[in-house]
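Chain A, query sequence.
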Amino acid sequence: MEPIHYSSNDMWWGTLGTVRPFSNFHPDQDVMEIHNALDRKDVGTLVNILTNRNNAQRQVIAAEYKQTTNKDLIASLKKALSGDLEDLLLDLMMLPEHFDAQRLQDAMAGLGTDEEGLMEILSTRSREQLQHINNAFQQRFKKDLEKELRGETSGDFAKLVVALLKKADSPALVQKDVEALAASLSGKKANAAPWIEIMTSRNSAHLNNVLMELELQLGQPVEQTLEKRFSGDFQMGLKVLVQCIQSPEVYLAKRLSTMKTSMVHGIMVSHCEEDLLCIRAAFLKLTGNSLYSALQKHFKGEHLQALLGICRSED
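Chain A, predicted structure.
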């Protein structure tokens, strides 16, 4: 079965996601088709179904599959699939908070820590989402996420990621925050503390106003100021945070433009039900090419078809 893709006119009105609830959802029918596809190793059918159902529906399918066949769908998919396609479809089958928890774990695994990978997730998730991710991390890995972050990072960067994990929304006056950030830059050595406190405890609308006022006062973009006054992981972390406050879709489009498989999977799976349409638009403006076309140039086979199913349509 060939994967079904849609023109832009077929997208759901009023949403920013590309993967939405399948309107004619019959989990029992999906289970039978998946069961038969697994027997025949019909990967196209698996791709078509799993990229055309939202996460909640995929969870229903997994439960129904277990009840009907007495088999675990994840284990069955692992037997039938391999490589990048296996990784992508298994990513789609995870609960969103478990998927982000897995991405955080992957960023901290091995000899080196992927500091920007940590920042991407912590900077683009809401306080409520981070609470769910925190709980999922504990459940999945039997470890405390805050403790793991402290162990894998150091200095002011460690303080920043931990503060992001505990995101607050403390009311404050824009001018007072602007003055505090400007004052932190006045000494010979810039003071990181106000940046950590303010940038992790205000809402995005407030912070956008703060950053605009600060740029007017300093006479240059905030990112340029950060490059001059801070260094290392902390500088990178603040720059990512500023980009995600100002234009998260542009930051994520830049990440996608690398076309690194793990990054493409991570962003597309975690944002396909939220704001992938915005990211697609930013990608087109940033690169001059649609995300749909870019995927076709870098990937192939059923793996490509699954990515195109998530991307949904040409821009």
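Residues 1-14 have pLDDT under 50 and may be disordered. The CA atoms of residues 46 and 84 lie 14 Å apart.
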